[in-house]
Design brief:
Layout: H1 3-20, H2 25-36, H3 41-48, H4 57-93, H5 112-126, E1 130-131, E2 137-139, H6 140-143, E3 163-165, E4 169-171, H7 177-193, E5 200-209, E6 221-231, H8 236-251, E7 256-261, E8 267-276, E9 286-294, H9 296-302, E10 310-316, H10 318-326, H11 339-342
Parallel strand pairs: 1-5
Antiparallel strand pairs: 2-4, 3-4, 5-6, 6-10, 7-8, 8-9, 9-10
Helix pairs in contact: 1-4, 2-4, 5-10, 7-9
The protein binds phenylalanine.
Amino acid sequence: MDDWRDRIESLREGALAELAGAGDAEALERWRVAYLGRRGALTETLRGLSSLPAEQRPAAGQAANEAKRALEAALAAHEAGLRARALAENLERERLDVTLPGRPPVRGRLHPTTIVLREITGFFRSLGYQVVEGPEVELDNYNFEMLNIPANHPARDMWDTLYVRPPDVLLRTHTSPMQARVMEAAVAAAREAGTDPPPIRVVVPGRCYRYEAQDATHEWMFYQVEGLAVDEGITMADLKGTLFAFARHLFGSKVKIRFRCDYFPFVEPGVDMSISTPDLRGGAWLEIMGAGMVHPRVLRMAGYDPDRYTGFAFGLGPERVAMPKYGISDIRTFYANDPRFLEQFTS
Ligand code: PHE
């Protein structure tokens, strides 16, 4: 056997044996440089062939080229094998069981107050009332003065007030300041247009705040829905008819309503309204709102002539409505943000 044949053959065998042990891309690259690179063993061998006698060169060159092709093919095959193995390992490691049931997404729900507010405002809208909202940070002027509750008047004790910047700026203790704001705005617009102040039908849902000891029926933050109707010829009968229709809409046709005299400086006469249904706490009476005929002074202060216009107003507590409706016994649960409570309500 010729010397050059031996050399090529042993080079090829050695290279293939070494390739078998190359376990990663780096080892492969090292191997490629060592054997097939420009300074690699095989290239060196090819170069060395030039010193052979001329008649041996073609055969030797052919053999060396064959060896080269064989090594290149082996490299490609080994590389593909490594890649396939890496892929298989990855797939195994990141195995995903697509038959597992998914995690159910948590679905939001409407808060019971929101549900009830929508029912209340929806009812009044069907009667032609507009829904408006007002500021929670309010001026003493609207929360008290314009409602016929002057400074130092003992009636102020009815509303334990949280002040933002005493003595003028406070958290509204009720939604009634919107009575004055709505009338004032209507009068201003009418003056601009050169017309008489228009009739008013509004309901005002919103948050109120009181500096109050909390218990099962009192919260320092709660909602009210104010209602105001102003027109020529409005009477107490309109108030009763409207509120009775409202109670029937919310609590069904078996509802009974009761008006008792009550005192609020901004109405005259003033009442509170209670409801009773057969399935409501054994027919007990539940007070859900204050109401009354808008006090002439309140009309006048806002720019409505009390000799021409009359009106009624009411302020109702949506939580008070939601509590019997959903069997909620403690008002503090409404705003405690406990999902176990909040999950329970559907409209
Ligand atoms: N604003 C009163 C309260 O918070 C309720 C009320 C509103 C009474 C409108 C009469 C008329 O207690």
